[in-house]
Design brief:
elongated; 2 domains; 60% helix; alpha+beta; 7 strands; five-stranded mixed sheet; two-stranded antiparallel ribbon; 287 residues; Heat Shock Protein 90
Length: 287
């Protein structure tokens, strides 16, 4: 027979059952909310990563489109230039021939001879421009071999240094030594030399040129940078520097950087130009 104490215990348990059940429901609800918050946070992180990936792909696609447009533009200009060069070369040969004949006739007439010599010099300069145009329009085929990039750049700096306007122009090379890459040493050396000479001439009588290179992760892939402390390139000119016949030099033909661009393309690489925050221009080649 139940005692009064037993009855009180049973009543107390019956009273606590709803409280225990309610506590369990609250705890379960808390677990659900925490799980929901965790899922929400993971979704937000995934969404942010996807946004970054999409933006990166958009930027890459935009850059590839710009490169494709530039290649198409250069190809069209090259075809037009080749046709013009051939049309100019024929009458130019006649001018040079007649100038040489005329020089014999006025050999004893110094004033007239000087005029003929000027005509001949002008014709020779036009012939040099035509030769450069034809060189630009020819198919460039690279034959990559294992090459020490450090040694090639040391030679490039050595060849370009005499073009400096004064001893106050400092040209230095820095990067891993040795560094094996696969390039056509003659073609790539020509492209690098053109970039370094342009940089040396851009700094004027005082400044510095830095030629640096580094690996980009993949075997034999690398980045080459040519920086100068010159005045930089005007904003409206950055997209035009690789166009044939575009030049800011009084005596330039505007074909040097266009040929560099084609050599880099022949190596399945890319070249870009920008203005450095420290001043001057930066040409970056990635192969």
């Amino acid at each position: 027979m139940e005692t009064l104490a037993d009855i009180e215990k049973i009543a107390e348990v019956q009273h606590r059952v709803p409280q225990i059940a309610q506590a369990a429901r609250v705890e379960e609800l808390g677990r659900i909310i925490r799980a929901y918050n965790d899922v929400t946070e993971k979704l937000q992180q995934s969404h942010a990563q996807l946004q970054q990936t999409v933006q990166s792909l958009r930027n890459e696609l935009s850059e590839k489109n710009r490169q494709l447009e530039r290649r198409q533009r250069l190809s069209a200009l090259g075809e037009m230039a080749a046709g013009m060069a051939h049309e100019i070369r024929n009458p130019l040969g006649g001018i040079q021939l007649y100038a040489s004949l005329l020089a014999r006739d006025v050999d004893q007439m110094p004033p007239s001879l000087r005029l003929v010599e000027k005509i001949s010099a002008g014709a020779k300069r036009l012939e040099a421009v035509v030769s450069q145009v034809l060189h630009f329009t020819r198919e460039i085929e690279a034959h990559p071999v294992q090459t020490d990039l450090a040694e090639l750049m040391d030679q490039t700096v050595e060849l370009a240094s005499p073009r400096a306007a004064s001893p106050q122009v400092c040209c230095r090379a820095s990067g891993p030594r040795p560094m094996s890459v696969r390039v056509d040493p003659l073609l790539f050396g020509q492209a690098a030399l053109n970039l370094v000479i342009n940089a040396v001439e851009a700094v004027g009588s005082e400044g510095e040129v830095e030629v640096s290179w580094s690996a980009t992760g993949s075997p034999h892939h690398f980045c080459l940078c040519v920086r100068d402390s010159g005045p930089g390139i005007g904003p409206g000119m950055l997209d035009r520097v690789f166009n044939p016949f575009f030049t800011t030099k009084e005596s330039g033909t505007g074909l040097g950087l266009a040929i560099v661009h084609r050599i880099v393309e022949a190596h399945d690489g890319t070249i870009s130009v920008s203005n450095s925050e420290r001043g001057g221009a930066v040409f970056e080649v990635r192969i």
